[in-house]
Amino acid sequence: MKKLLGLKYTSEVLKILDNRKVVNRIGGKYTSGSVRNVMAGKQQNIQIENAIYDLAFSKRKVNEDLEDKRKQLLNN
After folding, report:
1. In sequence order, what are the residues at sequence separation of 6 or more whose Cβ sits closer than 8 angstroms to the Cβ of residue 58?
2. Are 34 and 24 in contact (CB under 8 A)?
């Protein structure tokens, strides 16, 4: 999944969490470290996991659309 998400996925996940107004148990914003820990399986957090999966699905869709455009261009 890291290949799909790329190297700077944490900031994108944090943006998703911020847009959803998701905060940690003390009312603060999640950190990049929290996202990396969830991704590495060191910590469980369903809200962060959902944001990671949503980002992955979004990126996969973009990649599929781009591949379709390449195929159309090369087939014409």
Report:
1. none
2. yes
- In this prediction the pTM is 0.86
Q: 52, 38 in Cβ contact below 8 A? A: yes
Angstrom distance (rounded) from CA 62 to CA 59: 5
For the beta carbon of residue 38, count every other beta carbon within 10 angstroms. 20
Per-residue pLDDT tens over the stretch 64-75:
999 999 999 898
Q: How many residues does the chain have?
A: 76
8 Å CB contact between 10 and 29: no
Residue 63: other Cβ atoms inside 10 A: 11
Helix (H) or strand (E) holding 64: helix 46-75
